[in-house]
Amino acid sequence: MIALRECLDDQDEQIRSAALKAIGNIASEAAKRIIMDKINDKNFINKDFEEKKEYFEALSRWKDSETYNFLLKTMKKRAFWKRARNYENKACAAYCLGLIGNKDALSILNKSINSGNKLLKEFSYTAVKRLEHGQ
Question: How confident is the model at residue 135 (pLDDT cuts 50, 70, 90)?
């Protein structure tokens, strides 16, 4: 597990992606903690959008209250600097909420649909449709 965690910092994007998928497939509490810690890391906001999305997709394997609350916290986070990057994180959290399938998220997702940010609006809308129609 330690070696996989170190691979998440590799220069090669393919190695980082493979390590993340492997950690997600382990599906242990330790694996979940590694993913959450990486998302909370101050440098995570600088990752490109697709890589961020992979992290949240891996996190969607855990459908527990800790993960749900973590995602809500991400959705509510405000930023003065790097606002566009913060919206990317929120969009990824909305995506993950849709994958998890907890209908309690509909309230915050519906609020996000009214966001002025196109990416957040789009991902929130998709998550709401997924939750409402069970897709």
Answer: low
Quote the tokens at residue 23.
Answer: 């950690």
CB contact at 8 A, 124 and 115: yes
The mean per-residue pLDDT over the stretch 57-85 comes to: 95
Dist. CA 12–CA 93, nearest whole Å: 24
Domain range spanning residue 8?
2-133
pTM of the model: 0.94
Long-range pairs for 48-53: beta carbons < 8 A, 24 or more residues apart: 49/88, 49/91, 49/92, 49/119, 51/13, 51/16, 51/17, 52/88, 52/89, 52/92, 53/92, 53/95
What's the total number of domains in the chain?
Answer: 1
Q: Are 4 and 19 in contact (CB under 8 A)?
A: yes
